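EI: anyone free to look at a 130-residue chain?
SC: sure, send it
EI:
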Amino acid sequence: MDERTARILALACSVAGLATIYFSSALVEQSSVTADIGTLSLDDVGTSAVVCGSVAGLKASKGHIFFGLQDNTSTLRAVIFNSTAGRMNLSGVSNGNSICLLGQLQEYPPGSGEIEIVVSKVVNKMAVWS
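SC: here you go
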């Protein structure tokens, strides 16, 4: 194989790999359920979800961000860990703002029956509804 053919093949493989990563991440986000907070139950623990509401009780500790997310059905505790917060645009995360969150639902503290969302992404509200 000559050098030109090898370069073209390497470029094609790179583009195919990037496309695969892009479409895989889109599928993961699409497979998340958009839910009213009040409809979440312990059966949803371990799943990915998009929840929308208003930020309340925002506080930070050691780089982690904790707050409540309220919709017209209930309130959900939310946490953005410092390892994630450093990679996110958090400009919309302030008390009273309406936002949507993508994240993993978990029971915390374990055995409490309380559900929280560990946020992986702040989602544009209009993108969720379109």
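EI: The chain has two domains: 1-31, 32-129.
SC: 👍
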